[in-house]
Design goal:
alpha+beta
């Protein structure tokens, strides 16, 4: 059964709340508390949202429901603005969509898969992190010749 569509008001509210939390985390890295995670792959450096996303304390900044709604809403908008079944975009554990016109995938692992975490997806979709920078930093895993969202990001709210 398909998940119900997230209405624009709820979706935008969740996105703005999650982005505020992401910004607060980037500006005040110690604000979330340093003891919240297991052995970190903690990032540092100039990718902004990407560094915050690798910190296991990020989800503590915004409640899980808000982050989930924000991620799902932005995935929903991507699927609406780039209809198709050629590329699967995954943001575990919150959601996945198939999008982008082209050859349709019907069974097994799709040939074009993009996967990232919630904070990086929020940064990409909002334009705070360029696609090329995210791929170069290794915070987006993209496989397949059509696994490139440059033409679809940022997603305008």
């Amino acid at each position: 059964m398909a998940r119900a569509r997230i209405d624009d008001e709820s979706g935008r509210g969740a996105v703005y709340a999650a982005l505020r939390m992401l910004s607060a985390r980037a500006e005040h890295p110690d604000a979330a508390g340093g003891s919240g995670g297991s052995g970190g792959t903690g990032g540092s450096g100039g990718t902004g949202g990407a560094a915050a996303s690798r910190d296991p304390a990020f989800p503590a900044l915004a409640d899980r429901e808000t982050v989930a709604t924000a991620v799902r809403y932005l995935l929903q908008l991507l699927a609406e603005r780039a209809p198709g079944k050629t590329v699967e975009v995954r943001v575990p554990p919150f959601g996945a969509v198939q999008c982008v016109e082209g050859p349709r995938h019907t069974r097994g692992t799709p040939p074009n898969v993009i996967e990232t975490d919630a904070a990086v997806w929020l940064a990409l979709a909002s334009g705070r992190l360029p696609w090329a920078d995210a791929v170069a930093a290794g915070v987006v895993h993209a496989s397949g010749s059509r696994a490139d969202l440059t033409a679809y990001l940022p997603i305008a709210l």
